[in-house]
Amino acid sequence: MSSHDAEVRRRDAADPLAPARARFRIPDGRIYLDGNSLGALPAEAGARMTAAIEREWGDGLVASWNDAGWYELPLALGDRVGGLVGAAAGQVAVCDTTTLNLFKALHAALGLRPERRVVVMEEADFPANLYIAEGVLGSAGRPLERRLVPRGEDPAGALDETVAVLALSHVNYRGGARHDLEALTRAAHQAGALAVWDLCHSAGALPVELDAAGADFAVGCTYKYLNGGPGAPAWIYAARRHLADARQPLTGWMGHGAPFEFEPGYRPDPGIRRFLCGTPHILSMRAAEAGLATFEGVSMREVEAKAASLTSLFIERVEDLAGADAPPLVSPRAPERRGAQVSFAHDDGYAVVQAMIRRGVVGDFRAPDVMRFGFAPLYLTHSDAARAAEVLVECLDPAVWRDPRHARHATVT
Ligand SMILES: *Cc1c(COP(=O)(O)O)cnc(C)c1O
């Protein structure tokens, strides 16, 4: 046995999060490095959803809106998400999708800076965010401009007195580079702008302190590191100081101050409920609740430390084993500058990742050339990371990846 293996065993034995793995159902023989796309299945999710179907829907019927807490669920789950992203109660709602919530948050932020016209975003941001920002600009009812920060440049450099909103992803979806949320929020405020954060790749992977950082708005999904299941509803945060004045354009009845008064005119709820639109997705929310329960008693500082340890080990092993043939590392080398993921560049990355999947190691590929590996700290071990590195290096051999079965691109990559 090599000294390497002893190191892996030592790190796994000392892992305070090791017991959390039992909260998930991971298929035997699979090393799942795609929890940054769809989190693994919480062992309890099936029972919770079955109970919601049989008891709440089946037996309780419509009374469950009151008796089973359905009506309160978006805010109750919102507070639990808030606990993981440093938001005190009453500022987070679970609802809709990340894309829709970003639409609402950008509109609300722009409405609070009516005299300014620029939204700063990054060219390298997840395209969904750039696309929906175009929709915001087209529907704001005033001339606005999207200023894109070129790849590799500091977003703070794009701030000036014309900027209404700085809207950034905390951790980049592709390379996993992490921004300094607090410093950039401060820079936005110094320029008189508001800061809107997308935490899709941070919530559940890293500690985030929205209140302490003074963030204005934030959004994120629950189906990545929060393990909420496919299509689980997203969440939105609005800082308490903005709640009274923030207006979002999807003025649906669930955001009304008194939806069951059935008044003819819209008046928003005074609190975070104003960010809801229509009827909440109760069954999906029960799965999301099971996902949030996987974090019970878990320290986000320990999650961050384990993410750093897993990702560093993976990088080290890939580079050691592959030597001069190691693919270029896309992610930042310093663990405090990246999220819980590692990306390597490879022109035939799609085929390499497919070959790995055939060997039980599930990562994904982001066009044009990024092989992406997410290390969800709750259910992965250091021995998984070490084994995944061996499999990646095996699959770098063209004799392995150059197989027609690996070349066929599926619709969802
Ligand atoms: C995953 C992700 C989304 C997903 O948005 P949906 O509305 O759920 O499709 C949005 N933004 C970022 C940065 C993401 O990583």
Folded structure, characterized:
With 413 residues, the chain is of the alpha/beta class. The chain has 14 helices and 14 strands. Strands 4-10-9-8-7-5-6 form a 7-stranded mixed β-sheet, sandwiched between helices. A 3-stranded antiparallel β-sheet has the order 11-14-13. β7 (163-169), α7 (181-190) and β8 (194-198) form a beta-alpha-beta unit. The protein is globular, with a radius of gyration of 22 Å. The mean pLDDT is 97. The structure holds pyridoxal-5'-phosphate (PLP).
Task: Compile the SSE list and pairings.
Blueprint (H helix, E strand, L loop, with lengths): L2 H11 L10 E2 L5 E2 L8 E2 L2 H15 L4 H4 L5 H12 L7 E4 L2 H14 L6 E5 L4 H13 L5 E5 L13 E7 L11 H10 L3 E5 L11 H4 L3 E4 L13 E5 L43 H12 L6 H23 L18 E5 L3 H10 L2 E2 L1 E3 L3 E5 L7 H14 L2 H4 L2 H4 L6
Parallel strand pairs: 2-12, 5-6, 5-7, 7-8, 8-9
Antiparallel strand pairs: 1-3, 4-10, 9-10, 11-14, 13-14
Helix pairs in contact: 2-9, 4-9, 5-6, 10-12, 11-12
Pyridoxal-5'-phosphate binds next to helix 5 and helix 6.
